[in-house]
Specification:
Layout: E1 11-15, E2 19-25, E3 34-41, H1 47-50, E4 57-59, E5 66-68, H2 74-96, E6 102-106, H3 108-115, H4 120-125, E7 126-131, H5 139-149
Parallel strand pairs: 1-6, 6-7
Antiparallel strand pairs: 1-2, 2-3, 4-5
Helix pairs in contact: 2-3
């Protein structure tokens, strides 16, 4: 396993479905120093707190049979919207030259959701993805975890 390389100016995006930290390496690749550029947060209560109605039912025209409609997972929908918005922010950052390199650090579930919304520019700027949920950790611990992980480049 090789040590993860984080270039000067590279953004490390640490996120889950509710919170995103955009960190920038203001050090160099030998001695990274991650600094918070932006914090994005979205309150996202549980589905039961967001929608309390029982799922509806559909009636067929013939025979009077009924089938229930699956309840909308508002929590899941809010996560998808948050990650789509984050992907849009990253696209504008790459397009405007704020950063030329990104590494995504997120739970495997969040990575799966946000990948669908990467623009071509973000895909080109993406140096790697790390499937770990580190968003609740302090920055020095995120730095330590990433450098110890030997994440792919």
């Amino acid at each position: 396993m090789t040590k993860m390389r984080i270039d000067k100016g590279e953004w490390i995006v640490v996120c889950d479905g509710r919170k995103a930290l955009i960190l920038e390496n203001i050090g160099d690749e030998m001695f990274p120093n991650l600094h918070t550029r932006e914090v994005h947060e979205q309150p996202n209560p549980s589905t039961s707190a967001q929608g309390t109605d029982a799922p509806g039912t559909l009636h067929t025209a013939l025979g009077g049979a009924r089938s229930s409609v699956e309840q909308t997972d508002w929590h899941d929908e809010a996560e998808r919207a948050f990650l789509k918005s984050l992907a849009g922010r990253l696209d504008s950052a790459v397009a405007s030259g704020e950063t030329a390199a990104l590494t995504m650090v997120a739970s495997p579930r969040a990575l799966g959701m946000i990948r669908a919304d990467y623009s071509d520019a973000v895909r080109k700027a993406l140096h790697g993805e790390v499937g770990k949920d580190l968003v609740k950790l302090p920055i020095y611990e995120i730095e330590k975890q990433l450098l110890a992980s030997g994440a792919p480049r």
